[in-house]
Design goal:
The structure is a single chain. The chain has 140 residues and is an all-alpha fold. The chain is built from seven helices and two strands. The protein has helices at residues 26-45, 50-57, 61-68, 76-86, 96-103, 106-121, 126-137, and strands at residues 2-3, 6-7. A hairpin with a 2-residue loop joins strand 1 and strand 2. 21% of the residues are buried.
Length: 140
């Protein structure tokens, strides 16, 4: 493909390994599916086809369909460029916070939450600390 006389290679599936959604992560699947649906609705609202939108954001049409279908996790630069191209005023870029969480495996997020909770528990008196950790682990 050429843009302004220069050859440009669109980013495709092969360029981005590891950006699939974990099928066991229900929350992650919901976040990515909802984000993809919002991207598609905004793209259609401005009258753009997937191919021309892909060209505008620097990705292939197949990747646009996968992101909109909730099959791929969008990169931050994709969200920023989509926000700009679709004139969303920062609403699409705001998805980055949730997308960042989904990017890490569910087990990793759970461990990070547990670690943060145990650090917080150290600030409590011993009896309250034990109760807090038991609640965190779901043992009460």
């Amino acid at each position: 493909m050429t843009v302004d006389g220069e050859a440009v290679r669109l980013k495709s599936e092969a360029d981005e390994p590891g950006w699939e959604v974990d099928p066991d992560d229900e929350w992650g699947l919901a976040v990515i599916a909802t984000g993809g649906r919002q991207l598609k609705l905004r793209r259609e609202a401005v009258g753009m086809r997937a191919g021309e939108f892909g060209t505008a954001v620097g990705y292939g049409e197949d990747m646009v369909y996968k992101i909109e279908g909730g099959k791929r996790i969008p990169r931050f630069e994709y969200l920023d460029k989509a926000d700009e191209v679709l004139g969303a005023g920062g609403l699409i870029s705001a998805m980055k916070e949730d997308v960042k969480k989904v990017r890490y495996p569910k087990k990793g997020r759970d461990l990070a939450e547990l670690r943060y909770g145990t650090i917080r528990a150290q600030a409590f008196p011993p009896r309250e600390s034990l109760a807090f950790i038991e609640r965190l682990l779901g043992e009460t």
